[in-house]
Amino acid sequence: MTMISLTAIAITLLLSLLLARPTGLYMAQAFNYEKSVLDRWFGWLEKPIYAIGGIQKDNQTWKQYALAVVLSNSVMILLVYLIFRFQGVLPLNPSGIASMEPTLAFNTAISFMTNTNLQHYSGESGLSYLSQMIGIVFMMFTAPASALAVLIAFIRGLAGKPLGNFFVDLIRCITRILLPIAFVLALVFVALGVPQTLEPTAAATTLEGVTQEIARGPVASFLSIKELGNNGGGFFGVNSAHPFENPGGISNLLQILLMLLLCTSLPFTYGKMVGNKKQGRVLFVSMAMMFIVFLGITLASENAGNPVVNALGIQHDQGSMEGKEARFGVAQSALYAVVTTASETGAVNTMHDTLTPIGGLITIGNMMLNTVFGGVGAGFINVLMYAMIAVFLSGLMVGRTPEFLGKKIEGKEMKLIAVTLIINPLLILLPTALAVMTQSDTISNPGFHGLTQALYEFTSSAANNGSGFEGLGDATPFWNITTGIVMFIGRYFSVITMLAVAGSLAVKKPVPETSGTFRTDNALFGTVFLGAVLIVGALTFFPALALGPIAEFLTLKP
Amino acid sequence: MKTIAVTLRASVVLMVIILAYQLAVTGIAQAVAPEKANGSLIYNNRNEIIGSELIGQNFTSPGYFHSRVSSIDYNGASSGTPNYAPSNPDMLDRTQASVVAWQSENPDVPVSELPVDLITNSGSGLDPHISIRAAEVQIPRVSTSTGISADQLQQLVDKHTKDRELGVFGEPTVNVLLLNIDVQKLVSGQ
Lengths: 558, 190
Prior knowledge:
The complex is a heterodimer.
Chain A: H1 3-30, H2 37-53, H3 62-85, H4 102-113, H5 123-126, H6 129-158, H7 166-191, E1 202-205, E2 211-214, H8 220-228, H9 249-274, H10 277-304, H11 307-310, H12 329-342, H13 357-369, H14 378-398, E3 403-404, E4 407-408, H15 411-438, H16 448-462, H17 477-506, H18 523-555
Antiparallel strand pairs in A: 1-2, 3-4
Helix pairs in contact in A: 1-9, 2-7, 3-4, 3-6, 3-17, 4-17, 6-7, 6-17, 7-8, 8-9, 9-10, 9-12, 10-12, 10-13, 10-18, 12-13, 13-16, 13-18, 14-18, 15-16, 15-17, 16-17, 16-18
Chain B: H1 2-32, H2 34-37, E1 41-43, E2 49-52, H3 89-105, E3 129-130, H4 132-136, H5 139-146, H6 150-159, E4 161-162, E5 173-175, H7 176-189
Antiparallel strand pairs in B: 1-2, 3-5, 4-5
């Protein structure tokens, strides 16, 4: 790894930093119900949707809001499930792809609605263009929009305002944020070489006279929303490692910026909406620090390469190249891997199964914590949850009732938070144990790495990330059904509990701030917050990690 | 019940809008940059498709530059796996076999100069590129097999080398298919 590679990483992160604040402030404006110039820009598109949808714009209680999220998302899952099941006989299927079998369709529909994008099929051979265009891409807009809507409602609750209306927030997120950015970037991706065609798979005769089939399709319009919405599901099976889905250094840069755009902006949206910009900044800096440390460790580990391969006496300056593309090399692959797991996107430009043990450990760790920025909406709700835990712990230490944004955090809120916290390890560890016991024939690697494969799959599902250790033979009813259930609970359980917290806080009377109030917008709070994340998160999963990647690292000798 | 009805109606409108977005992008792409939008395909003079600039091909003949290892033999109908985890014994077996094959095909170049990207499986299995060094170490073999001088081959490698984009992003690479098309032209010209 050279200075140039490190410079490229520094430039990427700097660009991302520059974009975060303006985007965050724009988002706060986009969800502001007061009249603004944005109504004029986007009203022409929004009004017909409200009219045809029969959407009434009145404020909802937390229960109505939560019900609207879960019910509407379930209806969308059913709709898209039906499209997958009948894609073989529906139009826009030039490559003649068959209909999907039931458990796989179940898994795939939930996967994309929950913003996970775990894929147990390969896009080029498993989905018709119709399924890609109005099944998958439709959900790639509505899933992040639903998550963002929940976060915005949550923040409104914290700010003591009415929670708003789910459908209005959903539509605004799509029309004002996702669609315009996705449209522009899709065209840029075409200019960089990403295909955008409705022609079927091309057949070539290679220089050596072999027939080569070249799958293609409307990839660019898929790619931009895949990254922007932290969706991550690939048009092609190997996702952004595919040269069509990520042709070079600039397309790679843009994808990284898109993945980080919304999730790094949300602290600023939050600061603006609750009127405490300093606290938003403290949370941003805390997360950025974790990110930088994790990135550094991964870069060092991948650059050192695989000791077993290096021992063959070959020229190994490039580092660990198994599962990586020549045009990205170690530096851009490691960066992408950390960004995609921090932002819970799940797009990959390198095969995570082949990461060195410590590189793999960091990617799993990112997903287990789900607070190093975290996926659009859901990640930041998690962050605020940990912030409240930090406040609660501090309150216990000094013997005062904990307060957050002037609202008392009491037994009711803490019970809801504790339940949310416990559900995560249950969703990951129990099915992993079940899989290791009963499904060992689908796990493609022996030894410690085999455990990591199963652990990664369920961590990725529960965190709604969607990347995978792809050696896993996961297109079986067992994996389809279990991960489908884990993804569903992983997403909607916390939606309900956290909206309940917001509903409860919204009606509380603010406590006047005194000199004895524990401040939640300074470096001390940032430290306590990081402590809460690392202690609670790391201790929960340490035993499983010790048996998986850490044991693999210790035993990997030439 | 009302929520269900609203969802169904809103979903249909959104599906139409989102489909329109994709068709609009397709229309613009096909009008402005049809070659790229259709997959950067390469045609021979009889107008038959011989590949895509962005998709790697499998080369086994000693007279061509070889691409990286591909577990799917560069079949672009699908992509990907299986790759091997660092601790997988099959990984060691496969790389060892690659090294042995290298020694018998390239007796003039010692194993210590064999770059790691030539014996590892790319992420996509369709990697169109190799590193510059991976191209240069193959020059002696291609030269012996085709009779093209090493200098001339070096010039071709330089011609198809692409620097980092904007000078910093990604790694410098050599496009194997484009390079081999030029090699083939020289061979058939002779």
